[in-house]
Amino acid sequence: MLTAKAFRALRYDFNKVPLSAAVCPPYDVIRGPLDARLRRGKYNAVHIELPRGKNPYQAAAGLFARWKKAGILVAEDAPSFYVVEQAARVRGMVKKRSGVLAALGLDKGTASRVLRHERTLSKHKKDRQKLLRAVKTNTSPIFGVFADRSGAVNRLLAKAQRERPLAVGRDSAGLPVRLWRLSDPVAVAALEKLLSKETLLIADGHHRYSVGCEHWAASRQTGAGRLLAFLVSEQDPGLVVLPTHRVVEGTPSLRRALARVCRARPVHDYEALSAALARERSPYAMGLVEGDSFAVLTPAPGDKGVKSGFATDWLFRRLLSRVDPHDIAYFSEAGEAAAEARRSGRLALLLKDFAVGDIRKAVLKAGLLPQKSTYFYPKIPTGLVFRAFDLDP
């Protein structure tokens, strides 16, 4: 059985700190001007999620304590689920995605029903370990996707969304977010039962999931046996997954590998490249941008592909196996990757679109895919609720 339970949350008093002033993106996408803007908010979750200073993790723990004492953060009086609706602009269209925040078990039974699909980076794991040990709280949720073939979970969430929201605001991109508390015991029991039968594909948060599992196994600390998770049905029309494009240094060894394992077909410009790539039938086809040159890459004749059938796996095994993943720049927007390649003088490798089902099939066939294989959009905001160990033992 999959254990996904209601929990007693620690959350902002939204009368004191509006949702729009409270939330930030997860730690791994906070940088540059966005980072500076968020830090101007005195009570923004960025100060907890991505602390700065000489002793950042201890500073985050101290800030948590002060916010609780001042009533900025309040503890719920009963276990609840939290329904979240997010709007996002995707290629010129506005989509709405709904999901539920829950406490995901780290027990062996649940672990057997959780599919990880990406390898992790050691740098990110060390950072999340230090934060978790200091604050003893899940500050941001992992993101998981489940089949919900009957649509029963989506219907239950839709019913909850007919009630008055707990909070309404906008995320850091200025797009609407609504939050509901689902605490009715009958509805809670029904949702827990429905989720118990599902298998969960981790969409985002592999580092946080790994760190949570390792911390629980090593410490058996009260409250550490669960993890804050945002769960979304594959039936939700607003569920969007994008490929993660790469920008890398065009080293001699990479150029030799490109010439050996790929066939390149030049095209005139970026628009022509996008159109040509969409028409390619091979799942391993990709676009190459270097300066003012554009080409469609396909596997050389005789290449039988990889066991997973997934493009990033092929790309890693054929071209990038000797490149340090930390030296690769990752982009969810192909146009941004192309622009960065032209600006920096490096190479952009642009991947084709795929579906959630393709990820699940790849994992079941071959196990973990390379780091940053997918980008589920939008990221779930940090700061909607927190899961403190002492409230959810």
Give the helix/strand layout.
Blueprint: E1 4-5, E2 10-12, H1 19-22, H2 32-39, H3 46-49, H4 56-69, E3 73-75, E4 81-90, E5 93-105, H5 108-111, E6 114-115, H6 122-135, E7 137-138, E8 142-146, H7 152-160, E9 167-170, E10 176-182, H8 185-196, E11 200-204, H9 206-219, E12 226-233, E13 240-243, E14 245-248, H10 252-261, E15 262-267, H11 270-279, E16 286-290, E17 293-299, H12 311-320, E18 329-331, H13 334-344, E19 347-351, H14 356-366, E20 374-377, E21 387-388
Parallel strand pairs: 6-11, 8-12
Antiparallel strand pairs: 1-5, 2-3, 4-5, 4-10, 5-12, 7-21, 8-11, 9-10, 13-20, 14-18, 14-19, 15-17, 16-17, 16-19
Helix pairs in contact: 4-6, 6-9
Brief summary:
By secondary structure, the chain is α+β, with helices and mostly antiparallel strands.
Distance between the termini: 20 Å
Q: Using DSSP, what is the number of strands?
A: 21
Overall 3D shape: globular
Please identify the structural class as seen in this structure: alpha+beta
Number of distinct helices: 14
- Uncertain runs are none
Can you characterise this structure?
The chain has 393 residues and is an alpha+beta fold. The chain folds into 2 domains: 250 residues, no CATH class; 128 residues, Conserved hypothetical protein from pyrococcus furiosus pfu- 392566-001, domain 2, CATH 3.30.1760. It has 14 helices and 21 strands. The strands form 5 sheets. Strands 1, 4, 5, 6, 8, 9, 10, 11 and 12 form a 9-stranded mixed beta sheet that branches. A 6-stranded antiparallel beta sheet has the order 15-17-16-19-14-18. α4 runs parallel beside α6 and α6 crosses α9. The chain is globular, with a radius of gyration of 22 Å. The mean pLDDT is 95.
